[in-house]
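COMPLEX REQUEST
Ligand: zinc ion
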Amino acid sequence: MEDYPRTLLELERRFSTVEACREYLFALRWPEGFVCPRCQGGQAWRMDRGLWLCAACRYQASVMAGTIFQDTRLPLTLWFRAIWHVTSQKTGASALGLQRVLGLGSYRTAWAMLHKLRRAMVRPGRDRLTGRVEVDETYWGAVEKGVIGRLTEKKALVIVAAQEDGQGIGRIRMARIPELTKATVHEFVSQSIHPGSGVRTDGLSVYADLEGYQHDPTVIGGSGHTASELLPRVHRVVSLLKRWLLGTHQGAVRPEHLDYYLDEFTFRFNRRTSASRGKLFYRLVQQAVQVEPKPYRTLIRPQSLGAG
Ligand SMILES: [Zn+2]
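STATUS: Structure written out below.
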């Protein structure tokens, strides 16, 4: 049963205390009841400040430990409003916008919040794309049509995967990669696409030797077709992404901040049929309390960005 606020007023009323926020996190993290993170025991006593004492191993567990809220100094009430803001902005959230809405003293804090929420938007290695998937790369930060003046000094390389859904597009994945090599491309594919799936690419050598996939490379030059005809879904996604980046942020997204926006775009795109903003809020909170199975891979997702 999905339980979420439907309006800002509902959110304000329901989550006016840290305790109410904790209850909500608890229900999403342990829908079947408490599970000890250490011994998997199912019995615990409630203590102060959101802590639970495991009856079996005496471990003191917090509903926030291991989630994106671990070690935060900001109250959960503020986090919940940030999540509502991010999921209710149809055009995407900026750190400046978040700072204003929450009345935060510093831009840096707002940026760090967005950066943490980003980790909950797309979880590498989980829910990988399946079936038949198109993969191609693109650049961001070159002079884009419709933008006056210089955008950025450096171009960023972005790799995109789009799942086929009949004639349409299913789910997507994207990531910034430092360079176009076999290692970065194969890493992206293995994190984004389930083994055994069909992978459609152009004939570039970096895509060669994709083990564990049904690879279907097409040499664009010899085919008599353009890249957008051969890989129509991934090209459609790239053009939507660029329009969004240009429209929302006036093209002012710097390559070093791009990772956040790629994940936000992916989160929105993969839930684009979801009519309710409250449901997006629910999904993001739910993903925020799902504990990472292992530390983040760093190759395609450097952690040194922003003020996180
Ligand atoms: Zn325990």
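REMARKS: The chain has eleven helices and eight strands. Strands lie at 44-46, 51-54, 60-62, 132-140, 156-165, 168-177, 198-202, 214-218.
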